[in-house]
Design brief:
The chain is mostly beta strands and 356 residues long. It folds into two domains: 233 residues, Alpha-Beta Complex (Sulfite Oxidase, Chain A, domain 2), CATH 3.90.420; 112 residues, Sandwich (Immunoglobulin-like). The strands form six sheets. The protein has a five-stranded mixed sheet. Strands 6, 7, 10, 11 and 12 form a five-stranded antiparallel sheet that branches. A five-stranded mixed sheet has the order 17-24-23-19-20, with no helix packed on it. The protein is globular. The protein starts with a strand and ends with a strand.
Length: 356
Amino acid sequence: MTKTMIVRSSEPYNAEPDAAALIAQFLTPQSLFYVRSHGAVPNLPSDHAIAIAGIGIAARSFTVTQLGQEFPARTVTAVLQCAGNRRTDLQQVAKTSGDPWDVGAVGNAEWTGVRLADVLAAVGAASDPALHVGFTGADDVDVDGEVARYGVSIGMDKARDPDVILAWAMNGEPLTPEHGAPLRLIVPGYAGVRSAKWLTRIDVRDTPSEAPIQARDYKLFPASVAKADADWGTGLTIEAMPLNAAICTPRLGETLTDGVRTIAGYAVAYGRAVSRVEVSLNGGRDWQQAGLRDDPAAQWGWVRWSLDATLAKGHQHLVVRAFDDTGQAQPERPDTMWNFAGYLCTACHHVHVLVN
């Protein structure tokens, strides 16, 4: 990890990049891509085999080399984002569980591997939308005192999306251990928790995964529900991610000189287009349209935005909001979406700075 990474937890290792460095490039380098680990990083050999079994399947196993030999390669540009990204905004409302992520638990990369749909078809998996596909990683996860292997699942319809891939490379480079080597799942548009790393097994099932991280974590509850009272069977399983945008420069609490300054960040709409990004210099009373630096219609990638604005001396309150191609915008305030786990903070992002 580089010195630009901000460690949020040492065991397990969780870190996010400096926000200004995060948006310096369209494709986030592995060295600057956030790391979300739920346990110790396993060290799997490159010829490690992934077992595939389950309902209606002729059980098989594949190494990465075999996958590359038997199936056509697929490259997909996609954002991964932790469901807890921007949790610090919710923690300013009230205490939550989880690591104190700022705006950097997100990254945009080019992933290369093979289509999960091709592999499922090759082993005879049915396309029944009532089925689920489960994924087991090599890492052990502690969920409220219960230790079990990392296990998640997605519905069969999503699994058959041609952009859902079993990936061995990121930005044209082999995956590093902290990013899932030798093989990980990439589920564009879904919370990063569904893109399981260090794959050991794939199962076709008639129910969602029963692993603790699927059954009792990454679920969304209303503000009125405390963790101790949560009925995990009724919580919303976090899958598809909502519209989000954040300011990456200047940083919260930064001191600037007056005059024209660049305000910049990212926006992501997941399967929809970012139609526009607006910035306020006065806490949301007036808005200016920012320029978009990347393709706003990219299906799974992000767009970086920027605005050159004249900042007067004094305490300034900057805000960003994005709109997607349906006209939907981010909620105004984080207090309207607080939840005990600190998930899915997609409110307009507020940054206070001092201008001298």
